[in-house]
From TrEMBL, chain A:
Organism of derivation: Propionivibrio dicarboxylicus
Class in the EC hierarchy, top level: transferase
Catalyzed reactions per annotation: (sulfur carrier)-H + L-cysteine = (sulfur carrier)-SH + L-alanine
Keyword list, A-Z: Pyridoxal phosphate
Domain Aminotransferase class V: residue ranges: 7-377
E.C. code: 2.8.1.7
Name by which UniProt lists this protein: cysteine desulfurase
Signal sequence annotation: none
Record family assignment: Belongs to the class-V pyridoxal-phosphate-dependent aminotransferase family. Csd subfamily.
Pfam families for the chain: Aminotran_5
GO molecular function, one term: cysteine desulfurase activity
From TrEMBL, chain B:
Highest taxon in the source lineage: Bacteria
Protein name listed in UniProt: Putative Se/S carrier protein-like domain-containing protein
Domain annotation Putative Se/S carrier protein-like: ranges: 8-73
Matches recorded under InterPro entries: Se/S_carrier-like
Pfam families xrefs: Se_S_carrier
Natural source organism: Propionivibrio dicarboxylicus
Length: 393, 76
């Protein structure tokens, strides 16, 4: 694509554009399928149920889960994290997390802390990286859960969750479960919950999985006993309707209320699209985008990059600040004057910004995606160079 | 079907019925998703209809898959 007038660099908030097959699947679900899954035996209800089941199967395949019924759908990764954290942890339990987490992790954890759950926040380095040994050192006999993002939504930094998972399985002091927030990594970094020793995987559908907003969920690994997990919500499931008590079987125990069928059809299409691609080529493209942004921005006087500055150690999220210009002013001008759409500020992650040393001002975050044209990256780098020059005039 | 009177696999939830349809289809077992017959259950969901002589093979194929059978009619 040449001569683009705008460039969308907010794929870490939600990916855009989506593959056409995703749009087609959503339209088909709304126009041709209809029906409420699991609520009747007529053709449209059955067709809707098959869409949901296909999405469940696609998620399981994508993340290496053996049983699609252990994929619990919800609205987004925030809901999934709340289900895992609030569902599993009880007063007296201990949980370990990192200092790079999003508020979707930190807010439920702080609430639980106020209710008697002991919380240890392991400090990450200034680039967001986390030493697995420090996580292991924080364990106590009563540690029930280690809860970590796989990648920082602010700096893109990858956390060694698979290494931590494997070391937790070998730990003799405690046998905590590992909860991973994959919001910023799924679709970019290959995830296999068995290989990576992940017990609970929270995912969102609308970022690098290329599905619509309003989709996400929690995968329960084989070590997780569903009976130990309290539902976030209770209500109609279309099953055991003669009973006023919540069903205990999966996935109904945690899926009360009508699911986002059209969204899940789109998520299924996004996942199928990704599964059909050459993963190495996709990762190469993510890395090339990251490398170009790092190199281009680092060469601009007045720009400070925050994060690993290494595509091998991060996803394609690049955060920076600009000397002499506030993030809010920079973000406004990038959009208004240069057509560069990005996200500035704290990115719902104050802990991460404290770790990076960018609190409370925040950063400017560029997050390209698979469909970001290279001309768009050049346009954004050039726009930052112009802003930097103007800030120093 | 070898028997004119069909058999049914019942599930606690349609989620399991859809899974079972997929799993049994992959095993070349002929099943069809149908509304739960009223004489078998007051449930408003779906179940699988199949040939009576396929009941045992279907039940065995679902064992250990995570799909819970709520009933087999006629019983095994």
């Amino acid at each position: 694509m040449s001569g683009c007038s705008t460039v969308y660099l907010d794929n870490a908030a939600t990916s855009w554009p989506k593959p056409p097959v995703v749009v087609d699947a959503v339209v088909r679900a709304l126009t041709e399928v209809g029906g409420n899954p699991g609520r009747a035996g007529h053709a449209r209800s059955i067709a809707a149920g098959r869409l949901v089941d296909a999405a469940r199967e696609a998620v399981a395949e994508f993340f290496g889960a053996n049983d699609p019924l252990r994929v619990v759908f919800g609205a987004n990764v925030t809901e999934a994290l709340n289900l895992a954290l609030c569902g599993l942890l009880r007063p007296g339990d201990h949980v370990v997390t990192s200092s790079i987490e999003h508020n979707s992790m930190m807010r439920p954890l702080r609430q639980l802390e106020s209710e008697g759950v002991a919380l240890t926040v392991v400090a990450c380095a200034a680039d967001g990286s986390l030493d697995p040994a420090q996580v292991l050192a924080a364990l106590r006999p009563e540690t029930r859960l280690v809860a970590l993002s796989q990648a920082s939504n602010v700096a893109g930094t990858l956390l060694p969750v698979a290494e931590i998972g494997r070391r937790l399985r070998a730990c003799t002091l405690a046998q905590p479960l590992l909860l991973v927030d994959s919001a910023a990594s799924a679709g970019i970094v290959p995830i296999d919950i068995e290989r990576d020793a992940i017990d609970l995987l929270a995912f969102t559908g609308h970022k690098s999985l290329l599905g619509p907003t309003g989709t996400g969920g929690l995968i329960l690994g084989r070590r997780v006993d569903p009976a130990q997990l309290r539902p976030l919500k209770r209500g109609g499931t279309g099953s055991l309707s003669e009973q006023e008590e919540q069903p205990r079987f999966l996935p109904d125990a945690f899926e009360s209320g009508t699911l986002n069928v059209a969204g899940l059809a789109g998520l299924d299409a996004g996942l199928r699209w990704l599964l059909a691609q050459d993963h190495a080529a996709l990762r190469q493209q993510h890395d090339a985008n990251t490398r170009r942004l790092i190199d281009g921005l680092a060469a601009i006087p007045g720009v400070t990059l925050h994060g690993p500055r290494d595509p091998a150690r991060q996803v394609d999220i690049v955060s920076f600040t600009l000397a002499g210009l506030s993030c809010s002013e920079a973000g406004f001008r990038l959009d208004e004057e240069f057509g560069v759409e990005c996200r500035i500020g704290l990115h719902c992650a104050p802990a991460a910004h404290r770790t990076l040393g960018t609190f409370p001002e925040g950063t400017i975050r560029f997050a390209p995606g698979l469909f970001t044209p290279s001309e768009g990256l050049e346009m954004a780098i050039d726009a930052v160079a112009r802003l930097a020059r103007s800030a120093h005039v | 079907m070898s028997d004119p009177t069909p058999a049914y696999l019942l599930f606690h939830t349609s989620n399991h019925a859809f899974r079972a349809e997929k799993l049994l289809g992959a095993r070349q077992l002929a099943v069809k998703l149908v509304p739960v017959p009223r004489h078998l259950s007051s449930d408003c969901g779906v179940c699988l209809r199949l040939a009576p002589d396929a009941r045992h093979a279907a039940a065995e194929a679902l064992a250990g898959t995570g799909v819970e059978l709520a009933g087999v009619h006629p019983p095994l």
